[in-house]
Amino acid sequence: RSLYLSKNGLANSFYRSWAKSNLSIDIITNPLSSIVKDYNKVDILKLNCEGAEYEILDDLIENNMLGRFNEILLQFHKTENKRRRWALEAKLAEVFDKVYDYKMQLWKKR
Asked: What is the reported pLDDT for 106?
């Protein structure tokens, strides 16, 4: 998979338009669910991944793994599809309470 490298190194992303760069490297990735499956409980998940948070959360939801986390701290990055973000927030709200929402969101398990 291509990882696009931003000029300042602070916003590398799987999405060229977010990194604002054509410079990329190929990397091997694994879905987070393939790692989390070996753990019954995870204290906190922090996601600040320049747009990949959408597919990471989709993966965790599809594999019924949200409930393994006590807290999720995440930053939703801009998306053209606001309904996708709202749908993910609705799924998070089934398991967690949103206790903080300014730049980053903190979701705590009920």
From this structure: 98
Task: Locate 62 and state its tokens.
Answer: 């599809």
Report the distance separating Cα 58 and Cα 66, nearest Å.
10
Rounded CA separation 3/11 (Å) = 11
At 35-54, the pLDDT tens digits run 999 999 999 999 999 889 99
Place of tokens 């998979």: 1
Sheet holding 69-74, edge to edge: 42-47, 69-74, 104-109, 96-102
Q: Tokens for 74?
A: 């995440």
Strand positions, DSSP E, the chain = 2-4, 24-26, 42-47, 69-74, 96-102, 104-109
Do residues 47 and 73 make contact, with C-beta atoms less than 8 angstroms apart? yes
Mind listing the pLDDT tens digit for each residue in 12-28? Answer: 999 888 888 999 999 99
